[in-house]
Amino acid sequence: MATDTSHATAAAPAPDTDPTEQQRLTEPDYALGTPLDVDYAGAFHAATDADRALAARIRTFVQDEVLPVIDGYWERAEVPYPLVARMGELDFLRDSVDVDGHEQISPLGAGLAAMEMSRGDGSIATICGVQGGLALRSIQMLGSEEQKATWSEAIARGEKLAAFGLTEPTHGSDSVSLETRARTVDGGFVINGAKKWIGAGANSDVTVLWARGDDGQVHGYLVPQDSPGYDATVIEGKISLRAIHQAHITLTDVFVPTENMLPGGRSFKDTGRVLAATRLGVAWSAVGHAIACYESAVSYAKTRTQFGRPLAQSQMIQERLTSMLSTLTQMQLLAVRMTERDAAGELTGPQASLTKYTCTRGARQIASVARDMLGGNGILLQNRVARHFADIEALHTYEGTESVQALIVGRDITGVSAFV
Predict the structure, then answer these.
(1) Nearest C-alpha neighbor of 297 from the set 327, 268, 317
(2) What's the angle, vertex CA 327, arms to CA 326 and CA 332, rounded to 5?
């Protein structure tokens, strides 16, 4: 008896779309992390070969090791400890602080380094800023020779992780009014109080902690994080700098031996010296974030097709890119000029504040335009801008909010203080 094989031999139905049409329906790979070497006005013309070599090494690290993995760490709110260890190996954790046996870094080289690190990721750059710019700088500027011998090399190499504990739950912008107390006792001090928003303040080795002594002045203390009474919890729910942990610290009868007090930290003016040395670094970080957003916007405009043509062919897009480049160029020129003044010992506090004010404000503007230009793709981590967009919000706040920087400059302009 014959068998009906018509179902087995029937031709498969033709696809609804041909390969060419299917290709048109496939979204391209935007590759928005490609460096563009943005320096339209030649702001970096005075950079030495050593400056440029340092920036190039950091860019290579960012391109090869940071960008491929950082989105995952950011989304999971995990500290990328393998990258931190790698930065220690590469001598990227000092944030330009001089340490014996390490290459000296010029002020401009330090700025370019901060720019390149922030172009990669804000959390990574902030880790450098806390580890080197704040904690290591405090020890190098204000510590004893014994303290430097114990901590400086280990912190520079990332063998020990460090925090800088100044801000308190009720004292942020008015950190000069801090209320944490260090009471003198036999053999040292007993510290009671609280700190908040302390980068690396939990799960690290030591905190450079600022407290008010019996004399009413603010002093610095090296407090091991495993000290009894030192209780630190990671602050959760952040929408910015998610790949670095900030801690809320409670200090209950924490004993610190006399030798752990920083001998050079005799008042809040000394604390301020450390902070002033890092303010330009924040401005340079803002430049790096802005470059990342601008690069992504340019690459997207050239790749993305809408209404039958690349976005880059649109007059509106070209005007937006020009506006972004104009703002970025002003930021670069200001950062370089103020860095030159810093190198000559001529930079004033209000000038540093104006630089931070201008650069973080400009970075916010550029990130906002870039996010809008990418449309729906602009909220995806894989397309880079969203992470920088969020991280700039933290950068805009720390080391003094825009309002505080404006009051510092305003006082310089008018000769009248608006601070209470």
Answers:
(1) 317
(2) 100
